[in-house]
Design goal:
Order of helices and strands: EEEEEEHEEHEE
Radius of gyration: 16 Å
Number of domains: 1
Oligomer: single chain
Strand content: 35-45%
Largest sheet: 5 strands, mixed
CATH class: Mainly Beta
Number of strands: 10
Strand order of the largest sheet: 1-10-9-4-7
Mean pLDDT: 87
Shape: elongated
Helix content: under 10%
Structural class: mainly beta
CATH topology: Immunoglobulin-like
Length: 142
């Protein structure tokens, strides 16, 4: 059995598994949520430690704000230098109906990489099915 903090097989030697034990180090996730009529993307440090040099890769890429904004290209996802424990940063993606009406991807794979205070590197891979938001009842819908 590997001990916490030991590399997983297949990872780069310096990359640590995402902490799976509570209260130790940073733990950065990306989530999507709907508030009212808008789709949001959220970067959140759910861990107990500071996260540094956060980078997020989305596959496939997607666009927001009527199709004119390449969301993965935001500085938030390409070069965030620090995220405190418990901190969350949200960004508007688009109005839900506009996002799906343009045929933007429903399934988005996300890879988040970051470091802790000691410089140990971590990687987390998440899969989001945004299609679940398509049929949610919203105010004014019948």
């Amino acid at each position: 059995m590997s001990k916490p903090g030991s590399p997983r097989s297949g990872d780069a030697p310096q990359t640590q598994p995402t902490p799976s034990w509570p209260g130790v180090g940073p733990d950065v996730i990306v989530d999507f949520l709907v508030e009212g009529e808008v789709l949001l993307v959220c970067l959140r440090n759910v861990g107990a430690g500071c996260a540094h040099r956060i980078r997020v890769v989305f596959e496939p890429e997607f666009h927001g704000l009527g199709g004119g904004l390449r969301v993965p290209g935001l500085a938030l996802f390409e070069r965030l230098r620090f995220l405190a424990p418990g901190r969350e940063i949200r960004s508007l993606v688009d109005v839900v109906s506009a996002y799906f009406g343009r045929g933007e991807p429903e399934v988005v794979e996300v890879t988040v990489t970051y470091c802790d205070d000691a410089g140990r590197q971590y990687r987390r891979r998440l899969s989001h099915d945004l299609g679940v938001y398509r049929d949610l009842p919203r105010a004014g819908s019948h």
